[in-house]
Amino acid sequence: MRSRVLTLKDPRTVDLSGHLEPFALDRERLDRELRRSTNPYIRWEKGTVVSAGDLVVCRLGSDCPRFRKERVKFTAGSGMFHRELEVLTLGMAVGETRETDLPEGHVALTVTEVTNRIVPEISDALVAQMGLEGIHTVAEYTAYLTEQQKEERFREVVYAPYRYLIDQVVGGSEFVIDEADWQKVVDLRLDRSRTLSRQQGMVLEEMTPEQFAGRIPVQSYHELVALEQKTAWETLYMNLLGRRFARETGFLPSQAGYREMLRDYVAAWGGSEEAAREVDPYESYEFFSYNSLASDIFEDIVRKAFFKEDN
Description:
Layout: E1 4-7, H1 27-36, E2 43-46, E3 55-62, E4 69-75, H2 83-89, E5 97-102, E6 105-118, H3 124-129, H4 138-157, H5 159-172, E7 174-176, H6 179-199, H7 209-212, H8 221-249, H9 255-269, H10 273-279, H11 282-310
Antiparallel strand pairs: 1-7, 2-6, 3-4, 3-6, 5-6
């Protein structure tokens, strides 16, 4: 390539503080997840008093046939049988009778059996039984769940600071752009679309608006060419930045990396590896792997800033 970076604005010097949304821990969600972790260790024992979640057996007496039953079984508080009668049982002892008036009629309810739902408190011993690598205590498990929330939040907010970082680096750097390199980006992108279209039984240059719908946000081949020409500028900038970073990091495209990309493509989209090779030949992989490197480096900078801001 004849294009190159003349001067580089170091992406690590870009201030992202005003473009990062602070992380706020969802404590209710964390508590739910901590409670859920005890589910495999719940046990059931015969009891004498009803609490929410217990399995209850009752005898119902009523003038209403619906509530005239010798034996009815339900989970107290689940709402699966009858919400008012379930609430009525809370705190009742085996053998106790309570009465209530429902719209359908008067009901007398007697608790005949109770099986208590025993939920253990989360503990270091319980966490150790989960078998999570490197996690043996409640504190470590809490930190693990917190990090999961942070990661999810990062994925939700990363795009805006990521775009800002790219704009600042590209705008603050100097490039020499050769038209042939820009045209190569356009040609590689169009060749990929052409191959995908052919594999789906279409000719790219002849596709109709209906055939483009849901595939590419254009309505004709000429619009696609214009779109690729427009986006090729940033693609080339990112490629040149990736090549600059590659010299600093020692990165080189490899056949092993290419094979991994093909496997990922087949896993995501199906088809054969040969079809994947047609869509993304090694030349295309080699060229755009530098774009991926630049993208990964920019995202990593945003990630470090996001988690640092939270600390």
